[in-house]
Amino acid sequence: MPELPEVETTRRGIAPHLLGRRVTRLIVRDARLRWPIPEDLGIQIENQTFTAVRRRAKYLLLDIGGGTLISHLGMSGSLRLVPADTPVLKHEHVDIELDSGMTLRYTDPRRFGAMLWQPAGAEHPLLSHLGPEPLSDEFTGERLYQLSRKRSMAVKPFIMDNAVVVGVGNIYATEALFAAGIDPRREAGRISRARYLALAEEIRKVLARAIDSGGTTLRDFIGGDGKPGYFQQELFVYGRAGQLCKLCGTTLSECRLGQRSSVFCRHCQS
Ligand SMILES: [Zn+2]
Questions:
Q1: Backbone torsions φ then ψ of 227, nearest 5 degrees
Q2: What is the pLDDT of residue 219?
Q3: Active-site entry in 12, 55, 58, 156
Q4: 12 C-alpha to center of ligand 1: Å?
Q5: Which ranges of the chain have pLDDT less than 50?
Q6: Domain boundary among 62, 97, 127
Q7: What pLDDT is attached to residue 229?
Q8: 2, 157, 184, 228: which is the annotated catalytic residue?
Q9: Bridge partners (DSSP) listed for residue 115
Q10: Which residues are annotated as a binding site?
Q11: What pLDDT score does 76 carry?
Q12: How far does residue 252's CA lie from ligand 1's centre (Å)?
């Protein structure tokens, strides 16, 4: 599933090819994504020029004409640029043809993604209740500490709550808690300020590192056949249940928290 770093990598990959480019045609082959693609989307973007390519949480925000095209990659979506005459394959649901001769092509086998329209000046309900960006100054350990007081839920689902901070998916929550030495099962409201300061730092680091490693894949957004921009960084615990901790050699444990699998080291995390 594309996580925040992949979405940011997508943004960086497609932005140079969209900015200042005019949309010549929108082709929707299948409008049935998580929500139907609005019928008037073509009217909104055809003959208009992209002026900004932004990101908020895992939403791509493409400013064009009198508003913003909001795109979400869902579970399996991807965006890449192809020459306009590139044959269309299965699951390639949307083409945005540009005056450069390139096409921004949206592929999504599971169709949990989204392509929506937001007129300028309005705030889409999907965006209105989101917490701060993890790499922004608004996200701090102090914020985690304050919001967690009197919360009895486990710390892992707490930091994965989009109202607390956006973009901390299962991989990054698992890895950041390991790096900070915090047991993912600990009650959020019982963790000290000092430990939250350390955890916020680790969340920033793990996401920044993932975004950096995505930078090496930027060329994959042009042409090609594959899925652009998905990458692996070195993982210490995520997906490694039953294997040995890379720091201490203890066999890694697994539990379920908030319906998600969580791997941790009983020795390194408390
Ligand atoms: Zn360990």
A1: -95, 120
A2: 63
A3: 58
A4: 35
A5: 228-230
A6: 127
A7: 46
A8: 2
A9: 71
A10: 91, 110, 151
A11: 87
A12: 7
Dihedral sign, CA of 81, 86, 89, 92?
positive
267 alpha carbon to ligand 1 midpoint, in Å?
Answer: 5
CATH code, 247: 1.10.8.50
Q: Extract the annotated binding site for DNA.
A: 91, 110, 151
- Which pair of structure tokens corresponds to residue 252? 């890694």
Report which of 15, 83, 82 is spatially closest to residue 52, judged by C-alpha positions. 15
* Residues 159 and 119 reside in one and the same domain: no
Nearest partner of 79 among 148, 15, 133, 22, judged by Cα: 15
pLDDT for the residue numbered 127:
93
Domain membership flag for residue 135: no
Please tell me the distance from the alpha carbon of residue 188 to that of residue 9, in angstroms, as a whole number.
31
Distance 5 CA to ligand 1 centre (A): 26
Instruction: Give the tokens for residue 90.
Output: 């299965």
26 and 119 inside one domain: yes
Q: How many residues does the chain have?
A: 270
What is the Cα–Cα distance from 148 to 158, expressed in whole angstroms?
A: 8
Please tell me the distance from the alpha carbon of residue 71 to that of residue 94, in angstroms, as a whole number: 11
210-242 pLDDT, tens digit per residue, is 888 876 666 667 655 555 444 566 889 999 999
Place of tokens 């919360």: 151
Please report the beta strands in the chain, taking only residues with DSSP state E, as ranges in sequence order: 23-28, 50-56, 59-64, 67-72, 78-83, 92-98, 102-107, 114-119, 253-257, 260-264
